[in-house]
């Protein structure tokens, strides 16, 4: 009987051996068996082979319970899988997929032995995500039949498969495994041989920077993870993801990437070595960046580094009314957030007309919320009534908190803070929403730098839950406490960070985006393949080029320049392709063309 996923008679790859029956090998075996392939699972450990069979039995039993499989389907899937501790069991395989530990010595030994066992036409695939496929192929008797087939964990759920060719790989072998991946219900992406390929090549640089950020005590592990989940819509924060992947595995991948690129961004953060050598390799060990209930558990438990609820914050200042400076999308969104939370809001712009237009924009936003059933018409009307438009910052005379959301230009912001210093009453908290400029420069434009702090909202402010709270070396404790309390009242998740370029989110996000541009610039992979790889392999809500076009290439370039200027790392230099597109006026969706072209509105 054909399986629910495919008809194996249509593929020349009908019998497939999987060498290495750890978590990944077991997952691949399950995917293949469900797709009607005869699977030979091979592992040097009898216990590991038995564990693989038990896992398949449990997984297919759950499939029956959930109505995804019949009992007959389950019996046939299990009947297609046999296990062995002898590589000679792969003799009749059409394809061998090796997923042994990430070691050249181990993998080369397996390939050498397979050369004397399998048929001349058998394709041999390595599941490596860090080692050179070319180096493994060159050591084989039939290098043209060797390629990379990189599944993602958990293999049954993750749709991405990277098909990796070396300069030695025969096109027919690539075609055969690509067709197999499609037949398995996966999305194959064709890539060349370089450490990390596409998805891990972009992902691990980002994870490494997050580890270094934590090691520098710039932000807590909880705040780094929350910032990337809430600020970028990622399914997991980077430190939690390192624990899931395995700190030792991440270190191995980064070592391979650094050996090839010599990019300092790929040089493993020292904390990865420290944790690995201490045996604190993540979930599998019960402890890594976080501490877990038991080894293998995903349940985080409190440890010495877990922050106390409420922390050690000083008493804050009372905030009853809020001033928002600006008339753009961000200013309107922030004013809407405060008004919804019950605050009286003064929305001031450079003219009464601009302020009225901003309030009208808020009215339309509230109407959409009513239409979608998110709030009542009465609540929307009350919210709008709390907003008072003004054509001058003199209207901020009585506010307790003034938040600026004007142009991302330091001189413009400095002039505004000098004006707020004169207008706002003593004790008022002055906040900037800058995403890339030094908060302390705004503070120094006033006579009260202790009252100035960063409140970096994310766009669109009514929907995005994150606020980065940015203290300068001059910010008073009670000002910090005030802003933390206010964030709670407006139902935002506050994360603390210091006053340096990019804060948490942009400092981790934009180098990743820049590296994606470099991949295209170097003709390593296409826009579509990179976007697909990061959405399917990394769980990103948008691919890097989709996101760049939404953010705006000019905005992205400005942030890249700020990061490069502050950290002075050659790896952070903006990709020339980004600079060329901005110079050509191709700024993304707002101009109709960026990395892609868009229909005119």
From TrEMBL:
InterPro entries: 3-OHacyl-CoA_DH_NAD-bd, 3HC_DH_C, 6-PGluconate_DH-like_C_sf, 6PGD_dom2, NAD(P)-bd_dom_sf. The keyword Membrane does not apply. Residues 15-193, 322-499 form the 3-hydroxyacyl-CoA dehydrogenase NAD binding domain. Pfam families: 3HCDH (PF00725), 3HCDH_N (PF02737). Residues 196-292, 502-598 form the 3-hydroxyacyl-CoA dehydrogenase C-terminal domain. The keyword Mitochondrion does not apply. Pathway: Lipid metabolism; butanoate metabolism. Keywords: Oxidoreductase. Belongs to the 3-hydroxyacyl-CoA dehydrogenase family. PANTHER family: 3-HYDROXYACYL-COA DEHYDROGENASE FAMILY PROTEIN, 3-HYDROXYBUTYRYL-COA DEHYDROGENASE. This is 3-hydroxybutyryl-CoA dehydrogenase. It comes from Streptomyces coeruleofuscus. The lineage of its organism: Bacteria, Bacillati, Actinomycetota, Actinomycetes, Kitasatosporales.
């Amino acid at each position: 009987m054909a399986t629910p996923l495919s008809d194996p008679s249509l593929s020349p790859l009908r019998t497939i051996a999987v060498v290495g029956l750890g978590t990944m090998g077991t997952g691949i075996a399950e995917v293949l068996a469900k797709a009607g392939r005869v699977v030979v699972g091979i592992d040097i450990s009898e216990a590991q082979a038995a564990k693989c069979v038990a896992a398949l039995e449990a997984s297919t039993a759950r499939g029956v319970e959930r109505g995804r499989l019949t009992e007959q389907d389950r019996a046939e899937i299990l009947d297609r899988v046999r296990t062995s501790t002898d590589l000679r069991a792969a003799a009749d395989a059409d394809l061998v997929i090796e997923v042994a530990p990430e070691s050249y010595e181990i993998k080369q030994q397996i390939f050498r032995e397979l050369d004397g066992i399998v048929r001349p036409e058998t394709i041999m695939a390595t599941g490596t995500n860090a080692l050179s496929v070319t180096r493994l192929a060159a050591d084989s008797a039939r290098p043209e039949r060797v390629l990379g087939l990189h599944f993602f964990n958990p293999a049954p759920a993750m749709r991405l498969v990277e098909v990796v060719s070396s300069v030695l790989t025969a096109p027919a072998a690539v075609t055969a495994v690509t067709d197999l991946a499609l037949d398995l219900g996966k999305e194959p992406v064709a890539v060349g041989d370089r450490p990390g390929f596409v998805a891990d090549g972009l992902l691990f640089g980002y994870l490494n920077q997050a580890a270094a950020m934590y090691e520098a005590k710039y932000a807590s592990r909880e705040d780094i993870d929350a910032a990337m989940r809430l600020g970028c819509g990622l399914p997991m924060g980077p430190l939690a993801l390192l624990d899931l992947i395995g700190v030792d595995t991440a270190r191995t991948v980064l070592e391979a990437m650094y050996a090839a690129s010599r990019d300092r961004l790929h040089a493993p953060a020292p904390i990865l070595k420290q944790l690995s050598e201490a045996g604190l390799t993540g979930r599998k060990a019960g402890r890594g960046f976080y501490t877990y209930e038991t080894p293998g558990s995903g349940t985080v438990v409190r440890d010495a580094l877990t922050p106390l609820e409420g922390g050690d914050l000083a008493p804050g200042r009372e905030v009853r009314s809020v001033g928002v400076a600006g008339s753009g999308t961000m200013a309107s969104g922030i004013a809407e957030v405060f008004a919804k939370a019950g605050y009286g809001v003064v929305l001031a712009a450079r003219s009464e007309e601009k302020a009225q237009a901003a309030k009208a924009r808020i009215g339309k936003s509230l109407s959409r919320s009513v239409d979608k059933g998110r709030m009542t018409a009465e609540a929307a009307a009350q919210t709008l009534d709390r907003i008072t438009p003004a054509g001058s910052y003199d209207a901020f005379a009585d506010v307790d908190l003034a938040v600026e959301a004007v142009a991302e230009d330091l001189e413009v912001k400095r002039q505004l803070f000098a004006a707020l210093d004169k207008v706002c009453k003593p004790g008022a908290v002055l906040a900037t929403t800058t995403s890339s400029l030094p908060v302390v420069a705004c503070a120094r434009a006033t006579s009260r730098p202790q009252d100035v702090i960063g409140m970096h909202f994310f766009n669109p402010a009514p929907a995005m839950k994150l606020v980065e709270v940015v203290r300068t070396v001059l910010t008073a404790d009670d000002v910090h406490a005030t802003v933390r309390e206010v964030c709670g009242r407006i139902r935002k998740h506050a994360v603390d960070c210091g006053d340096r370029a990019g804060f948490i989110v942009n400092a981790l996000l934009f180098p990743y985006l820049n590296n994606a541009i470099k991949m295209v610039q170097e003709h390593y992979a296409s826009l579509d393949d990179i976007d697909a790889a990061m959405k399917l392999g990394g769980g990103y809500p948008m691919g890097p080029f989709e996101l760049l076009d939404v953010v705006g290439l000019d905005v992205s370039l400005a942030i890249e320049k700020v990061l490069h200027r502050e950290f002075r790392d050659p790896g952070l230099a903006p990709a020339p392709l980004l600079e060329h597109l901005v110079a050509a006026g191709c700024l993304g969706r707002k101009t109709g063309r960026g990395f892609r072209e868009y229909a005119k509105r």
